Structures are given as C-alpha cells and as structure tokens.
Amino acid sequence: MSTAVTESSPEEQAESDQLVFNDAVIKIATKNGSGSQSANLILLRAICKMGIPVSGKNLFPSNIAGLPTWFTIRANEDGWIARRVASDILIAMNDSTAAEDIAELPAGAMVLLNDALKRFDTRKDLTVHAIPFNKLVAEACPDTKLRKRVIDVFYVDVASWLLDIDMETVLEAISFQFGGKKSAIILNKAAADAGYEWAKEHLPKHPALRMRPSNKTDGKMI
User: Fold this and answer.
1) What is the pTM of this model?
2) Which element (helix H / strand E) includes 15?
3) C-alpha closest to that of 69 among 43, 44, 105, 35
4) What are the pLDDT digits (tens) for 79-119?
5) How far apart are CA 151 and CA 164, in angstroms?
C-alpha cells in the first residue's frame, strides 16, 4: 500500500523557513504558594517528553507565601540548557513584579499577561496577549476553593498552543505530576483541554518559535 506524501505550498514552506524550532526561553513570574510549581514542572516535562533538551531554574528570594517567585525554562535542540538572561516569552501572573519583569524583556519578546494586569501593557515593541485566566478557571472549576490550584495550568495550555507543544505530552505530564490523585488529574486535564481550546480559538501561533518532536532526550531523565 502506497503512502501519499503531502507537499507544502510555497507559502507554507516560506513560513517554515523563517521559524526557529526547539530553541526558546520561557520565564514565568508568579507568587510563592500559588501552586505554580506544579504547572511549571508539567510544562518542563512535556517539552522533555517531546525529545527536546530542556532545563528549569527556580528563583525565589524567600520561602514566605505570597512573595515573588520566577521559574525559567530553557529548551534547546543542541543541548544548550544553562540559564539565559534574555527571555523569549514572559508569563506574567504577579502584579508586584509585572512592571519590572516586562521592562527587562528584549524587544520582540512575547508576554502572556493575566488580563487583570493589563495596566502593565505599556511597551510597543513587544507582542502582548492578555489572557482571561480568572474567567477561564471559573468556567472550568466550579469549586472556588480549588481554583487557585488550577489556574496556573491554563498558562501551560496557552503556551502549548503558541509553541506547538504536543498536548498528549502535556496530559501525560499532568498524570505524572499528580501521581495517583485521580480527582486532581481529572480536574487539571479538563482545565488543560479548556485552556488549549480557548487559545486555539483566540490566539495566533507564535510568529517565530515552535517546538517539534526530536529524539535528544531518549533514555534520559529530567
């Protein structure tokens, strides 16, 4: 049986030639105790399971709940995964650091901004997407007590859409992260699906950066 080969159009080929694959730095700014660490590790593991070398660096000046924390993910096909100062994408969830976090970005970077922080969208040389995280989590999670534990998984899903991160690996990473906690797995997977579908409907792909399956992490652990 023969297999049909689909050829790319000249426009699609030109677009592909301009993309950078498997080379990105994502900085996530949140607060201690928000539950963001689980979301960050889900995103990190999903990229790793795509076969892409990746590392994560957690920076928190204090262990006090509510104070700022940052998590930086660097993915690089060639294995260059040490922390890089300049970020390609900032996920801004903390109002106390948003102004400084955005000011530090190089021109051309992208910001995923909680829409409650839209007042910090002041630079014209960045691509900024204001995401209604609070609205999305309210729709996906009727239990108000659980929303703060689920809200951060939505930025994982938005980033996955923008960068072509395989959602199957995201769902697998959710199962791994929450072990045998069936209710947590079900809730977070439902939120993941909802966040991804929202991003798919409302946002274009990242104009320059994409992740695609590789084999550089075969037989390796994070």
Assistant:
1) 0.90
2) helix 10-18
3) 35
4) 999 988 899 999 999 999 999 999 999 999 999 999 999 99
5) 21
